[in-house]
Design goal:
Mean pLDDT of chain B: 95
Oligomer: heterodimer
Structural class of chain A: mainly alpha
Order of helices and strands of chain B: EEHEEHEEEHHHHHHHH
CATH topology of the largest domain in chain B: Fumarate Reductase Iron-sulfur Protein, Chain B, domain 2
Largest interface: A-B, 28 and 28 residues
CATH superfamily of the largest domain in chain B: Alpha-helical ferredoxin
Number of domains of chain B: 2
Low-confidence stretches of chain B: none
Strand content of chain A: under 5%
Largest sheet of chain B: 5 strands, mixed
Bound molecules: iron/sulfur cluster, FE2/S2 (inorganic) cluster
Number of domains of chain A: 1
Strand order of the largest sheet of chain B: 2-1-5-3-4
Number of helices of chain A: 5
CATH class of the largest domain in chain B: Mainly Alpha
Distance between the termini of chain A: 43 Å
Largest sheet of chain A: none
Low-confidence stretches of chain A: none
Amino acid sequence: MATFISTLWEGVRYRGGIGNWAYLFHRLAGLATLLFLAIHIVDTAFVFFAPSLYAHAIDIYRSTPFMFGEIALVAGVLFHGANGLKIIVFDYRPDLWSHENEKRAAIIVFAVTIILWIPAAIIMGNNLIQCNFLHLCGE
Amino acid sequence: MKVHLKIKRFNPEKDSKSWWGEYDVNVDPTDRVLDALHLVKWYQDGTFNVRRSCAHGVCGSDAVRINGQNRLACKVLIQDIVKNDGDTITVEPILGLPVIKDLIVDMEPFFDHYKSVMPYFVNDEALPADGRERLQNIADRERYDQGTKCILCACCTTSCPSFWLNDDYVGPAAVVQAHRFIFDSRDRAAEERLKILNEQMGVWRCRTAFNCTNACPREIPVTQLIGEVKKALATGEIR
Ligand code: SF4
Ligand code: SF4
Ligand code: FES
């Protein structure tokens, strides 16, 4: 655990450039997705085992902080996917990976993530505003 | 010009944890960071320690983290990292190896990883008919050229987040050294080395963060060489 935290901390402190950031985000996004999936599997199991708890879980999912979290999570999933594809390409063509290409590829990954994320964030954000701030959603 | 040095200090006999020592020194813009460190040691605080041998980027003994990046202190010019008079330069030991004192780390665990990949020439076949060299054409020699430039400074391995997380990972330097022999057409132990690197703490621990490539003072495309080893493992072809 100590090394995990110091790795995170040093990963932020180290001036490794964009590849270092891509690595960090990739790991964090992967961890966040895994955590979410694990929680999600458990609470869906509640439908069968404890329906009242399931209703409670759904309420939590509809709470404002959680919905913000979900919007961020989508960014994480998109980034993890895009960066994963970059790594796959790298594995097949190691010879392509000069300094410049690596930087360019990381920038493209960040850009693709943002481009895909904006529409998702708009749809989800719209939903959030309508339901949680304007209270326009039916129960 | 004047620069402000912030150096991470640690004396195992006195300190329970590391602390930042701050020093002002007068240097020329064309001096190297190592010169600035010498000024501190020689004229301000003789208890401060840094390791260096050649002072010309050949031996690999003065790898340190300068302004957040692993470099050789003897290869970084002051003018390349500071802009204005009085600017600060931070210097700390490389991360992931035990600190012996101040900027000096214990390189033994690093060399153990190096030794683990059989970094020597293996060929028990009979010598060529003339009893002399095993000849190689230019392309064959070129194939492993990059790896021959490595000076085992550990800049790469100690910049690797995977290595920070788990120092059982052999690390980029060991893979570079293995690459040097795996892709040598005269060598006969490639299979064995690949087997070692296929282990859990081998080459697959590399997550392509690229810190190592950015850190290498010999400009070796480290991540690319690692990628070639991975590919050889995945395809079973050494090309
Ligand atoms: S490319 Fe691989 S070996 Fe190099 S710093 Fe990144 S994870 Fe470590
Ligand atoms: S590959 Fe480069 S950074 Fe790594 S030990 Fe060799 S010379 Fe140093
Ligand atoms: S002192 Fe030899 S490489 Fe810097």
